[in-house]
Amino acid sequence: MTKNYIIVGLLCLVAALVLGIKPVQKTMNEFANGGTLRGVETCISYSSSDLVSPEAIKARCINAFQKRLYRNEHATGRAGPRRGRDNLFWGGRLENKTADHVTTWVQISVSIFEDDGTETEIFGETPIWIDPLDAAEFEVELPELTDEELKGKDFCEHDMEERASCFSWGVTDVKGLKI
């Protein structure tokens, strides 16, 4: 068993000498801290640049380390259609109901039900930052959504058995970081 640790240590030392310390540290960070806030913080510390903004570095590190979260309560809230300059957005407020994760990305779906019950589903996604047990405003561009599709329709009632001439929305996918 000790022999394996010595071999791994020697391989890391050789890699550090050949590749340099930073690439080895980055690889070790990705392996040890995937899906965690600590991994993002470490990634940011390794990724300083005079050519790229700190915000771009932070976004890249978050994207590299965030993991899919599987429970539905990671992001819930209220939202609705909003008119942009050239198209419609879906926006509102999302809540992170967990105490151990930061929400970093959401995908939403908007379902539009015609008079005959035919459903059209449109998806959009956005990066977001919601601290544990906190909330944040969001807005997702939906270029496929038109005013005409929503004209004369209201939000669907939750207890409707057969939905017709209404629309609804929901969070369909969430990514985040464990704190």
Describe the model.
The chain has two domains: 49 residues, no CATH class; 110 residues, Immunoglobulin-like (Sandwich). It has five helices and eight strands. The strands form two sheets. Strands 1, 4, 5, 7 and 8 form a five-stranded mixed sheet that branches. The chain has a three-stranded antiparallel sheet with strand order 2-3-6, with no helix packed on it. The longest helix has 18 residues.
Q: Estimate the global geometry from the Cα principal axes.
A: elongated
Secondary-structure-derived class: alpha+beta
Radius of gyration: 22 Å
CATH structural class of the largest domain: Mainly Beta
Count every beta strand, where a strand is a DSSP E run of 2 or more residues. Answer: 8
In total, the number of domains comes to 2
Q: Please report the distance between the alpha carbons of the first and last residues.
A: 32 Å
Strand count, sense and barrel status of the largest sheet are: 5 strands, mixed
- Percent range for β-strand residues: 35-45%
Oligomer: single chain
Q: What are the defining features of this structure?
A:
three-stranded antiparallel β-sheet; 37% strand; 179 residues; 2 domains; Immunoglobulin-like; 32% helix; five-stranded mixed β-sheet; alpha+beta
Can you summarize this structure?
By secondary structure, the chain is α+β, with helices and mostly antiparallel strands. It is built from 5 helices and 8 strands, in the order H-H-H-H-E-E-E-E-E-E-H-E-E. It has 2 domains: 49 residues, no CATH class; 110 residues, Immunoglobulin-like, CATH 2.60.40.
